[in-house]
Specification:
The chain is of the alpha/beta class. It is about 45% helix and about 15% strand. Helix 2 runs antiparallel to helix 3 and helix 4 packs across helix 5. The two termini are about 15 Å apart.
Length: about 120
């Protein structure tokens, strides 16, 4: 199971293996507060794509499509996805941790869906 959670929310034992999936460290959070098992910034969208999206809800569909394309084509991201699939099969619960305010339209939502689909193949 893959769960999603903002880094600013209190960590819980039910989170299982916690992975920060942002390229940039979240503001105002220490490593101790984050309670992470892994920071996998290679899985995050490219800086150019992140800027293009700008967390504007109307751009999310196009962002998701372009991000999935990055995940499928860029070697660094393909390796990160393979690592996430391996962790997904190893741990009963993974939690993708992210900093975005919008809990429904962010890169972690896209990444979760992509990893789950790829793990089923």
């Amino acid at each position: 199971m893959i769960k999603l959670k903002r880094v600013y929310l209190e960590p819980e034992p039910q989170d299982g293996f916690r992975i920060l999936v942002d390229r940039i460290w979240p503001r105002g959070i220490t490593k101790e507060q984050a309670h992470l098992d892994l920071w996998l910034k290679e899985a995050a969208p490219s800086p150019a794509l992140r800027k293009e999206f700008g967390h504007v809800p109307d751009r999310f569909v196009l962002f998701a499509k372009k991000y999935q394309q990055e995940l499928a084509e860029e070697e660094e991201k393909k390796a990160a996805v393979r690592q996430l699939i391996s962790l997904y099969k190893k741990h009963p619960v993974l939690t993708f941790v992210y900093g975005a305010r919008n809990e429904k339209q962010n890169q972690a939502v896209v990444l979760k869906s992509y990893v789950e689909q790829e793990a089923e193949r």
